[in-house]
## 1
Amino acid sequence: MRVLVLGSGGREHALCWKISQSPKLSQLFCAPGNPGTAHIATNIQVDLSNFESIKGVVIKYEIEMVVVGPEDPLVNGLKDFFAYDNQLNKILFVGPDKNGAQLEGSKDFAKNFMFKYGVPTAKFQTFTKENSDQAYDFLKTLSAPYVLKADGLAGGKGVLILDTIEEAYSQLKEILEGKFGSAGNRVVIEEYLAGIEMSLFVLTDGTDYILLPEAKDYKRVGESDTGLNTGGMGSVSPVPFADAEFMNRVDERVVKPTIIGIEKEKMDYSGFVFIGLMNCNGNPYVIEYNVRMGDPETQSVMPRIKSDFLEHLINASKKQLSGDSIDVYNHTQLTLVTVSGGYPQEFKKGYPIIGLEKLGASDYFVAGAKSNENNIVTNGGRVLNITASGNSIIEARERLYDLVNRVDYQDIYYRKDIGLDLI
Ligand code: AMP
Ligand code: GLY
């Protein structure tokens, strides 16, 4: 099978790494890819917002399967573009259609879906400029802290958690006035859920599904979960509190009704459902849906899958997941994101990365870096994803922090406490 992975981050490098191990693969392409994917795939320059240019690549390289890494092309209807094109509609596609992608593209849509299908989630109401006067009354029915969410895609910045009702009300007005652009034309206000978060990954064909290993993401830039929110500073899989009893509840109360909803809403959904869960005293609540894999969770999830991942993707995209099952390794996998100093605020790019030759091919994934003459240089906030396994979190942490000591670039920063809270 000739496979094209779309995207350019550490998530896509990890997807390529796992797919490249499949005996079913004949050739792997990544667009646009990065210096890490270049070792295992043919990188192709393409603008992911230009569907005609994606089509050009798919035809030129005789691609048989497309795997979409990030959410934007899905929310913008890439699957529908393939489905309505005579030259593309036979190509296997991993990712939902535009209707399904609304589960991530619109928080209001996702919340209504959860309520309709009985998926446990926080109480909510949606406000626009027209009814914002009523927001204060709704806020009064909740208790602090207050959660505000811009409805549309806001690059991970659209969620605010505020301590006072006054702040919440004034932020609501600011979002409705364009603080997050059109993503904030509607704002979801919801009840705050106290608990521990985890990321659940479901691969579905729209009717049947398999559960990939779960993971926990470390979102804040500072140790002990302090400081600004980021795209993710590290991840761990498995999550110790996700024991069989909890996962059983998750399956019954969250996954099954979600897949039933996907089927009933006639979504053309062959792909990933990434469910952000809150464990509230042993009961799962859904914080959000995403229609793709998580980053940096994928970097800890892929090394834990034993079975042929490409075969699972083929089954999902052919709508033949019934009877499929996944084999996983029992080890613990930890991933550490090294970032550019200053991230998630201002940072500089273009610093040479040294020491990568001291790492094995399975010890790291490349995120924000590019090739520059003979060097690989930093090219983003999140730069490298170092990853290590062990029989315990303690063992994996020892390996992880030994590995990260071998690499360097100017102003490198990373958290030293990945996994520590779970020991
Ligand atoms: P999201 O962009 O929906 O993932 O939200 C970003 C982060 O905000 C989540 O990962 C949670 O940590 C937090 N969050 C979102 N919704 C809630 C909620 N209802 N209660 C508590 N925390 C929340
Ligand atoms: N790590 C969270 C995300 O990918 O959205």
Note: Residues 2-95 form a domain with the Rossmann fold fold (CATH 3.40.50.20).
## 2
Amino acid sequence: MRTQVAIIGGGPSGLLLSQLLNRAGIETVVLERQTRSYVLGRIRAGVLERGCTDLLRRAGCGARMDNEGIIHDGTNLSTVNGMFRVDFKARVGETVMVYGQTEVTQDLYAAQDAIGATIVHEAQNVALHDLTTDAPYVTYEKDGRSHRLDCDYVAGCDGFHGISRQSIPADRRTEYERVYPFGWLGVLSRTAPAAEELIYANHPRGFALASMRNPQLSRYYLQVPLSDKVEDWTDQAFWDELRRRLPAKVAEGMETGPSIEKSIAPLRSFVTEPMRWGRLFLVGDAAHIVPPTGAKGLNLAASDVHYLFEALQAAFGGDAAALDGYSDRALRRIWGAMRFSWWMTSILHRFPGQDDFDQKIQEAELYQLETLESAQAAMARNYTGLPY
Ligand code: FAS
Ligand code: PHB
């Protein structure tokens, strides 16, 4: 089999890149390790920047999002001194869209089916070959048979645990990492959201986040020790702890119910440089991971896709030099989001072993955010998305 761009991974990065390339007349084949239902069963991101929603519309995948997504003009932060709001629209003239990654992935699959894109599910043992030549190829197994896919370029969209990043020689990669000493226990429940907009809570017992997917579906998170297991947390224990950490007024009126999904995710900051090795280009979580505190993970995947799509379009139009700028261009925006996600995590969580000085610095950061328009503008600019 032969194609122009082999895409490893059928998550948001791979599907969005495939959709944009095919609409531009560039052939792709997506190789996804899991079944489609497995990919669609993942509960992940919830907040989309305008850059991401614009790209989804450009890919012909924005109709249901524009119909069902919820526009938020701001967000709330709460501390033991009360709750305050950062007004994105007033500070930087921007908004965000609340629309779950599960829905985005569903829309992408539907759009890919509509154009007859080639997606191979349950592709096992994917391996990348001859990446530093002008004739790279990919091998994989499917239904017990071995396959070879010749291509011009390979897009590594296979997430943090994928094969693509590992296909770059270790001595040619520089990796930067910060592993946080806590995790996020997430619950999805068919209950009305606790508030109109998100609430990020800094509490002495730990961080909490009240988010949502739609007026009947809520998404909540609690900071928990890394030693916790999901089975340690009954639904009742979760709701009781969430009530302790949210503002009393919000907690009193909060609707609770059975969890329809409950999981613990570790938090890390991670970047690998460069994001290119010969004819291989890394995209999304394959190249970087952010703690979800800044709602940047999926949104960074979108800007990587935007940059690589533009460069590949130019390359197939005769300007191969455009690909030379992909890694640096993507990394510039990635490090901006990396910093913001680290900062949001630093000011909102209780770190094991943090001393009184750390606590006072957190309180000063939050006080500036509450009282300085310039601090709110900087936060709003980062939260709603740095320029592409
Ligand atoms: P993904 O990991 O989504 O997709 C990679 C795909 O490649 C997967 O389908 C995988 O099956 C496939 N794959 C892997 N190895 C392969 C191989 N060898 N061969 C073929 N296919 C292979 N972001 C936010 O903004 N907000 C959040 O709240 C948030 N919560 C998250 C919670 C969790 C538990 C996780 C893991 C991530 C979360 N994220 C969040 C980040 C998340 O949304 C990612 O940024 C987003 O999924 C990135 O998309 P992809 O780059 O496509 O990677
Ligand atoms: C979510 O709704 O899943 C969500 C929202 C904002 C975040 C993280 C997760 O910062």
Note: The chain has a mean pLDDT of 97.
